[in-house]
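Sequence in, structure out. Go.
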Amino acid sequence: MQGLDDSGTWAPTPWGRTLPRSCVGTDPQRYLDHLQLRCKLAAVDQLEQLFFAPVAALFSQHFGLPLDLLSSSDGSQLPGWALREMASGGRIPEHCEQDWNPLNLIENGTLCDVALEPAFQLSFLYGVRSATQGGELQISADETCVPLSPGELLLFNAGCRRHQVLPTSGPELRVVLGGFLRLNRSHTRLHCYV
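Output:
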């Protein structure tokens, strides 16, 4: 991605790379340190304005609630979205987010103290680039496959619905912007994080 090519700003994953590092299964200080690298990139500010600000406004309007970003206990603002590139041959195995909540630094209270509604753990994905072949999101209960073309936005209950990303192939990488959309326990605010 243009303006984001410095490999030191990306975090490797088993299926590709992500910017910023995910809060799932990582060391808290390593996560916060990685956020500092992300904040220095002008391209991140552009993506924030072009993508996340309109999506956040859409969510707020649709649900009729304000959307607030979370802050860590040290006052650092936590990002509401991540850019994810899936390498050719990459896939994400079947899971639901509740499987990973014990290792999630937001959900387990390691990074911040926020009471979230357990039944409302959504994922949002915005298609930036499609893989040459494959890369569809498969929602497992009914085996619905969603190709997620560039410019499409998908919101689904990833907390409860098992899902996977099917294997990719070819020279074009699957690239999405996305994160988690959560409702606070008092049902007065929405929060996005990665």
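Check: The longest helix spans residues 42-63. DSSP finds three helices and 13 strands in the chain.
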